[in-house]
UniProtKB/TrEMBL annotation:
Family: Belongs to the CALHM family.
Molecular-function GO terms, alphabetical: monoatomic cation channel activity
Pfam families recorded: Ca_hom_mod
Protein name stated in the entry: Calcium homeostasis modulator family member 2, tandem duplicate 2
Topology relative to the membrane: Multi-pass membrane protein
Superkingdom, taxonomy of origin: Eukaryota
Keywords, ordered alphabetically: Ion channel, Ion transport, Membrane, Transmembrane, Transmembrane helix, Transport
Transmembrane segment boundaries: 24-46, 58-77, 97-122, 185-202
Gene Ontology CC terms: plasma membrane
Length: 309
């Protein structure tokens, strides 16, 4: 039991550590996981059909389909996506300017493309999928000494060395070298292009921000801490409210020791009306009121509640 408790506490510490750090750490972990997955796929699952007409489709699918899946998953698991959806449903995006919408969409897509781009780049640098896809399009006339009259079907067999006719084995190395050169060149150009784009976007973000660097860092810490505390409190609130409902129905509720301590500490939980949920949900950009900063919708709601009292 003591070992389990120690492991649990260490896990909580590690999770909080990563949650409190910059988003670059999270993106780095996603990229590393994608690299591992792509490498494992190439080793254990990639199998070029080595057939004219099929190579191209299979190679492009091996690069594009996982990238598309990762992109859609990145969009779905991003909280900002659903904040934007809620904002459009509840407030018709009336308070969301074009610049703010562009910045928000840039943030959503920027995080969502980390895994897809990593998959595409690693695929291109390793070259297997590209070699499979483009082998049938190599012009035999560009290979010195290559027998004339060979069809694309023969060239499509080059990714599978055992399927290549014996008299053409001498051209395997040159063909593979040429295709890997093209594949890796495209991969490095993609890396360079994305690096320049990220640099320019960061420069624009810093130059257009109304906040100083220190206050923007504070705002980031505030949002992170608010989210952690909100989620933790919401979990306790939901458990207490559920316990009251179960007790009302059965006449008693079977609680574990930790839950009994929660009930002793907090007694009960009151339901929260939909109006308040809507007021603290959605897109929110930095604003001020009476010279005081409002860092989130919850912060704005709390400020409004105090002003009414």
């Amino acid at each position: 039991m003591a070992a389990a408790a120690l492991i649990t506490e260490n896990f909580k510490f590690v999770s909080l550590f990563f949650k409190s750090k910059d988003v670059m750490i999270f993106n780095g972990l996603i990229a590393l996981g994608t690299v591992a997955g792509q490498t494992a796929y190439n080793i254990f699952a990639f199998d070029c059909p080595c057939s004219s007409g099929r190579n191209y489709r299979y190679g492009l699918a091996a690069i594009g389909v996982p990238a598309l899946v990762f992109f859609l998953i990145g969009i779905m698991i991003n909280k900002s996506t659903w904040d934007l959806v809620t904002e459009c449903l509840l407030r018709k995006c009336r308070k969301l300017s074009g610049a703010a919408a562009f910045a928000l969409l840039g943030s959503i897509f920027g995080r969502a493309v980390v895994a897809p781009l990593t998959w595409v780049v690693i695929s291109l640098l390793q070259g297997q999928a590209y070699t499979c896809a483009l082998s049938e399009f190599i012009d035999p006339g560009t290979l010195e000494g290559f027998p004339s009259g060979q069809s694309s079907e023969v060239m499509a067999k080059f990714p599978c060395q055992q399927s290549v006719p014996a008299e053409l084995h001498g051209f395997l190395a040159e063909t593979e070298r040429r295709l890997k050169y093209e594949s890796q060149l495209i991969g490095w150009l993609l890396v360079a292009g994305m690096s320049v784009m990220v640099f320019l976007m960061q420069c624009v973000k810093r130059c257009c921000s109304p906040l100083s660097y220190q206050q923007e860092d504070y705002w980031s810490q505030y949002r992170n801490n608010e989210n952690i505390l909100f989620q933790r409190t919401a979990a306790v609130h939901a458990r207490l409210l559920a316990a009251e409902s179960v007790k009302s129905f059965f006449g008693f509720v079977a609680l574990e020791k930790e839950e009994k301590e929660l009930l002793a500490d907090y007694q009960s939980a009151r339901p929260i009306c939909s109006t308040n949920w809507n007021r603290v949900t959605g897109v929110y950009l930095y604003r001020e009121k009476n010279g005081l900063p409002l860092y989130s919708r919850l912060n704005k709601w709390e400020f409004g509640t105090k002003s009414l009292t």
